[in-house]
Write a structure and sequence with these properties.
Length: about 150
């Protein structure tokens, strides 16, 4: 039960309560849909989502690393979005390649962006699905805001 001193009346209060009850990963705040990469497949030999091939994972292992997959997913009116990353393609600053995939029922998955993110990082998909915002680190170790167009990659 909500204490009476926390109850509000009117439409503004309803919007605040609705926003507080929104599912995780589906932030409808002004910025967009939030992704938080989580380590989902340590010591990966196969990607259950099919984003990374077995050969991709074997190559990471051949480089002397244990392949690890990080994923985040959200569901929007346009379909299911999957952000996937491995520890196999990272630079000296810890920025690693990720892939943003759009899955729709009855259609093949489509790669929509390939951002650089810190391993296990975060990204924000715009509400119109056209931009992906990231927090990155440059060659000098300084943080900066990254931005990627979201469209099918051929």
């Amino acid at each position: 039960m909500i204490p009476s001193h926390l109850l509000f009346t009117g439409t503004v209060a309803a919007g605040i309560v609705f926003a507080a009850l929104a599912p995780a990963g589906q932030s409808h705040a002004q910025q967009g849909y939030a992704f938080q990469l989580q380590r989902t497949t340590p010591d990966a030999r196969h990607d259950p989502d099919g984003v990374w091939s077995d050969d991709d994972l074997a190559f990471i292992r051949q480089q002397g690393q244990m392949p690890t997959i990080y994923t985040a997913r959200i569901t929007t009116p346009s379909g299911e979005w999957l952000l996937s990353q491995t520890n196999g393609d990272c630079n000296m600053q810890g920025m690693c390649t990720a892939l943003l995939i759009l899955k729709k029922p009855g259609a093949s998955p489509v790669t929509m962006a390939n951002p650089q993110l810190p391993l296990g990082g975060t990204a924000m998909l715009s509400l119109n699905y056209k931009k992906l915002a990231t927090k990155e680190v440059d060659q000098s170790g300084r943080p900066f805001d990254g931005s990627y167009d979201v469209a099918p990659i051929r």
